[in-house]
Amino acid sequence: MRQRTPLPLVAAAALGAALLALPLLGLLARTPWRRLGSLLGQHEVQQALWLSLRCAATATGVSVLLGVPLAWVLARAELPGRRLLRALVTVPLVLPPVVGGVALLLAFGRRGLLGSLLVTTGTVPAFTTTGVVLAETFVAMPFLVLSVEGALRALPRDPEEVAATLGAGPLRVFRTVTLPSLAPALVAGAVLAGARALGEFGATTTFAGSLPGRTQTVPLAVYALLQDDPPAAYALSALLLGVSIALLFLLRGRWR
After folding, report:
1. SS3 breakdown of the chain: % helix, strand, coil, rounded to 5?
2. Are 199 and 240 in contact (CB under 8 A)?
3. What is the rounded CA–CA span in Å between residue 189 and residue 228?
4. Are 236 and 38 spatial neighbours (Cβ–Cβ below 8 Å)?
5. How does pLDDT run across 6-44, given as a tens digit for each residue?
């Protein structure tokens, strides 16, 4: 016999769905679609778009290069302090982005922990394009790490053990056996990290500022346009919404 769904649960679910859908509908309803083409043709907007895409792609690449080994250590290595390391990885997920930007500034700014070394070498990332990438990597990499770590824990070790008995070294086993098996989780984690990097605002504006052509990404451009040209900000926001929906479409079924 089919169980009836309790009416209070249906009502609460409907309210929850409305809470999520109404802001998006409001954005779409107020977006001046006729201006979208002319807006995208503006030099400042094109600068922000290309900077956002370039920085988000770079941050995603850095997240993969550093996050996959970190996920492997969390899932497979028997090291003391592994729980503390996992907690450290998850902190950026719950840390207010502005606080993350302040923390980056106190670590990599001119007066930060590494400030004297960075000033000496002329590589201070604060308020530069490199700072944008660093801020986006800081907030995005945990998404990839947690996705890959979960997949590693569920991955059977039999193929790896067989490869090891045939003489393959640990690094070769990882490269030829483990990594191909992680491809779906790696793609899902990379897409999530890229989406998070593309939408990053708080840490970026605090650590890198909002300099047109250098550090002003699309979210920062939207914030600036809200003061001078709200309809243009609505149109640019709708564009970001479309990109987010496209990324979710690419992720269909893989985030589990």
Report:
1. 75, 0, 25
2. yes
3. 36
4. no
5. 788 889 989 999 999 999 999 999 888 887 888 878 888
What does the pLDDT look like over 211-244, one tens digit per residue?
998 999 999 999 988 888 888 889 889 888 888 8
CA trace torsion 134, 136, 139, 140 (10° rounding): -110
Whose tokens are 């990324």? That residue is 247
Q: How far, in Å, CA of 195 to CA of 218, rounded? A: 13
Say what the pTM is: 0.88
167 — alpha (psi -120 to 50), left (phi > 0) or beta?
A: left
- The two counts, helices (H) then strands (E), for the chain are 14, 0
Residues in the chain: 256
Give the whole-angstrom CA distance, residue 36 versus residue 120.
45
CA pair distance 72, 85, nearest whole angstrom: 12
Tokens linked to 186? 């790696």
Q: Which helix (H) or strand (E) segment is 19 a member of?
A: helix 7-30
Does the structural domain 35-250 have CATH classification 1.10.3720.10? yes
